[in-house]
UniProtKB/TrEMBL annotation:
Gene behind the chain: gspL
Keyword Cell inner membrane assigned: yes
Native source organism of the sequence: Marinomonas phaeophyticola
Keyword field: Cell inner membrane, Cell membrane, Membrane, Protein transport, Transmembrane, Transmembrane helix, Transport
Protein name, per record: Type II secretion system protein L
Lineage: superkingdom: Bacteria
Amino acid sequence: MNRLIIRCYESSTISDTSRDLLSELPLTEQATNESRVRYGALSSRGDWALMDEKGALLEYQQDADLPQLTQYLAEQSTGKSMRFTDVIVCPPTERLHTRCLSLDSGQRKHLETVAPFLMEETLAQSMEELHFTILNKSQQDRTWVVAVEKTLLSIWIEQLASWQLFSPSILPLACGFMKEAEKQEGHCLLVKVQQENVSPVEGSAVLSPQWLWINDTTVNVLTDSMLTHLPKTAMETAIIEAEPEKRVLEKIAQFVLQTKSWQEKNLCHGAFRQGGLWLEKLTPWRWVAALAVIAFCLELFLLQASTKALGLQEQDVRQQANALFLELVPSEGRVVNLSRQLRGLLQQNPATTTSTKTDSAYDVLAKIDQAREQVKGLHRLTRLDFFDQTYRLDWQAEKRETLDAIQSALEKSALSVQMEQVVRQEQGYRAALKIQLTN
């Protein structure tokens, strides 16, 4: 699992991408945000390193063209392991307000709420405009907190997305050096993070800060001219590498590799997590979504109520039909299967019978024997009586469905058949059938 680590610098001019982002804002906000973008947007030139899962350096470039980085890696991936799963970006440290806060007892439990108020007196703008990230949640008496302007963080994320660097983890550069600073006397550490002969940022004649200064309360970036204001011991313990840009990326890779909870220090959380910006844009529509959900629940309730009402109507109609049937045919006694009982009564009506006057006793017996052969299964005729133009049969079968099949076969033979009774026995079922001949 390779990781792509990128260090971005600040651009002092408005890039085409930043200008496009500004054009999407209302006119009343463009003037306000233009100055922020001018001194906060990311430069298209930066340093990057591709690290493998063990922290080994696979490839490194300084002052690279970041908008073309993904295309370059795709072209170089043939025959080489240049694919990556994580994108870690270190933004310009000068745009992050990092401070170590001392905590009283009880403040740890509500740190997410308390931290912005503890930093308020050191901030030059409203807290509503800032996004806060707590870097170390495990310490009890003190914690590092990073504040960054929400508008600026949004622009960084959209700039990276325009460079095909989606869902980045944005980590403060100081994360790679904080543990080392804690080991120093006074928790102070001076690290050179940029060479003197590096090109100035775009559109500016001033070199970007070359030093990272961590003390027990703040994190700052300094130029050479500012070093005279530091304690004398700072330069004595300063970390100066031959390739400071490369060393910075290696330190970030070591930090990520050695820290299981490194994602907690990602600035992209809350409204800025993966997909969070879209959710934030959809926030004005939350009431529409709520009304849609309420309308759906109401429609579901009405549908359920309508289904229940139809069920009650069906039950009422069934009861009325049964009562009317018993009123018309009281000899039936009770209703077991209304449709079957109606069919039997209709078959008894001479006007609807299909039996002919030409059916003789031999014809009826032949039809009975034919029905017996047609129906499969274990069954037999146990009794046959004839009296007053009526045949009465007792038929035994192993299954109830077999008796229904026998009745159906007799009806297909143009006989008026009525099943008067079905009795369950130990060996199956016994049915009493009546065949009425036409006078």
